[in-house]
Amino acid sequence: MIHIHKKTLQDLEFSTVLQQVSELCITALGHDHTLQIQPLKTKESVLNSLTLTNEFLASFYNDNRIPNHGFETIAKELKLLKIENTYLEAHSLKKIVAISLTSNEIIVFLKKFQEYYPELYVFASNIEVTKVLIEEIDTIIDRFGDVKDSASPLLSELRQEINKLKGKINQSFASALNNYHQLEYLDDIRESVVDNKRVLAVKAMYRRKVKGSIMGGSKTGSIVYIEPETTLQHTRELNNLEYEEGEEVVRILKSLTNFIRPFLPLLKQYQDFLTEIDVISAKAKYAKSLNAVLPEINEERELFLRDAYHPLLYLSNLKKKEKTFAQSIELNSENRIIVISGPNAGGKSITLKTVGLLQVMLQSGLLLPVHERSKVFIFDRIITDIGDNQSIENHLSTYSYRLKQMNYFLKKCNKNTLFLIDEFGTGSDPELGGALAETFLEEFYHREAYGIITTHYSNLKILANELPYMQNANMMFDEKTLEPIYKLALGQAGSSFTFEVAQKNGIPYSLINRAKKKIEKGKVRFDRTIAKLQKERSKLEKTEQSLKINERKKQTEADKLEEINSKIQKKLESYQELYDSNQRLIYLGQKLNDLSEKYFENKRKGDLLNELFKVVQVENSKRKKVSQKQKKAVKNKEKQVKQEAEKKVEVIRKKKKEAKKKAALQPPTPKPTLKIGDRVRIEDGRAVGSIDSIEKNKAIVNYGIFTTNISLDQLELVEASKK
Fold it and tell me: 169 and 225 share a domain?
């Protein structure tokens, strides 16, 4: 059985998370239920809740979106249905239709797409889908929320008579209005409405001449409002009919309510189902806002939070457009307790709260803002001691309160417990408090509990270094500026940088030296060694990051080269095919030319045709039978390759033309005077030779195997003779 104390939820600000989740609900009941979320009591319920949230989150990213689940609460209607002889008003019946339609739609949808949402389908599968309620209410109530005329024969008859009477009233009133208007008894406004009845606006002086019932008068007393006598009788009849209509409507509504009453448990089930769906939806929306995932849940008691964010800090920084630093932390059977040390304001408490809050969220069915390869397991108990715990009400000092907490920890701590303690051992004499804290920590260690503590005590850092299943960690600081990096480094204790921080904040150096003399030399040396190691680690971190960036750059360049190489290879293959095709055509052209020449000499048609036939047969023997489609594809490919080749040739030609134009525009560079022994080559040539002799603007160039006589204008200097 899982139990997490209220104090733990308070320390970790879990209520703030629930407040943020509740704001994403679309119903009042969903909002209230979200605020009441507590860590679940069994592992099975935790896994089920997480899976439901994860499936709803998946619906945001696929084409099969879960239908809208919004509804108006029917709590009042459910109470009325429990009481005999009560009846539901028309608007209440419309709410019942709406909640039934919404529930049915979602249940049918989840059945249809149970492959995508297996757990949500199971969650909804025990709820009945029925149209009886909807159909029955729809036969009585129209879409405007009024009882239909067809609800009963009597109601239909009454409403027909009412309509007729209303017609008679209007007719008789119009007659009286015209009559008294002609007699000039009426004021300019002629008529008005009093108590929902049309009345004549009679001038006060003529009030005795107009037969009817006085209904009131104007503020000035100049007008008297009179209902004509001719309409009074009809009005009385109308009142009687409307009373009968009201009674018939109540009778119909009572009958309909009695029909609905047996469905009370189903309606309650609908409301509970949609409320729970709203809570799950809000959890999924919250997960989306955090980029949260469902990490792997294992049985091996392994907790590995990779790139974990504190959700409240992440969302707060997101609004401010500031960066939030992710933390990675691991607890397992080989590394059960982590002791985090280092200066204040470095992020120790946030790291502690991040681990605790994420674990509580997980055990309440909320997804976590961590890397998808993170691993978690479920603790039976999470106990914390975080923040200022001075109790004014109970007259307890911080230390007394902390001792009470430690006593509670000792009673509850076992191998299925996660304990989180901030500033462990503080509040008393450093020597004595440190010794007691060390004893407590040893006890937690021997009980095989998992935990994270933050401390400044050196003896706790040493203990973590000595015990095999406990390790030190520190929040890294920039070694030059002493500014926090907000990154947790496992495996090494952190210096408190007490004197370094004091110096940075302007405390005179002489005072710092006096303070150093007042404490043990060994302690200063120990803290200095830790500080030095921390600085070295920070340097190594930066070097490692730099190497990783370089490695990524090299990999990117290698991928680009591979891609270019692949493209060149494909083009070479295409050009090779084009070259082979052109060579074959050249060969055929030469063959045809030879036959034409032969025929030109001997004029033998038979021989020519025989030879041509042989050539055609030889060529056809090389061909494979292909379909028209394949032929077309080959031709298109050849055409494409030719076009590419022509484009490239055109580009090269253009470049050459531009180069020639530029060369023509530029003044010619004076040619060097060539001498005997200079190494030269013909312009645009490759072979290099040396000048043996020069006569009449011509040079004899020796290429080793042969010599040649070339004009000096055609030669360019490669290397001058070293004479």
Answer: yes
Whether pTM exceeds 0.85: no
State the amino acid at position 38 in one-letter form: Q
Q: Are 674 and 712 in contact (CB under 8 A)?
A: yes
Q: For residues 102 and 70, is the Cβ–Cβ distance under 8 A?
A: yes
- How many CA atoms does the CB half-sphere of 438 hold within 13 Å? 18
Residue 454 included in any domain: yes
User: Tokens 């120790």, residue?
Assistant: 348
| CA 206 – CA 179 distance, rounded (Å) | 14
Please report where in the chains the tokens 């033998």 appear, as a residue: 604
Which pairs count as long-range contacts for 539-545, CB under 8 Å and 24+ apart, including other chains? 539/479, 541/476, 541/487, 541/489
What's the total number of domains in the chain? 4
**Containing structural domain, residue 221:** 150-247
On whether both 263 and 137 belong to a single domain, the answer is yes
Residues 391 and 444 in one domain: yes
Torsions phi, psi for 73 (to 5 deg) = -60, 140
The secondary structure element, H or E, covering residue 225 is: strand 223-228
- Show the tokens assigned to 674: 């060539």
Strand partners, 4: 382
Are 340 and 469 found together in one domain? Answer: yes
In this predicted model, what pLDDT tens digit does every residue of 242-259 receive, in sequence order? 899 899 999 999 999 999
Low-confidence ranges of the chain (pLDDT < 70): 344-346, 387-399, 425-433, 477-485, 492-506, 509, 512-535, 537, 623-627, 630-631, 634, 638, 641, 663-664, 666-669, 705, 723
Q: What is the pLDDT of residues 176-187, one digit of tens each?
A: 888 878 887 888
Quote the CA–CA distance of 317 and 322 in Å, as a whole number.
Answer: 5
- Mark whether 342 and 461 lie in a shared domain: yes
Evaluate the CA torsion angle 317, 318, 324, 328 in order and state its sign. Answer: positive
Closest CA to 338 of 536, 530, 446, 492: 492
Query: E strand or H helix at 692, and its extent?
Result: strand 689-695
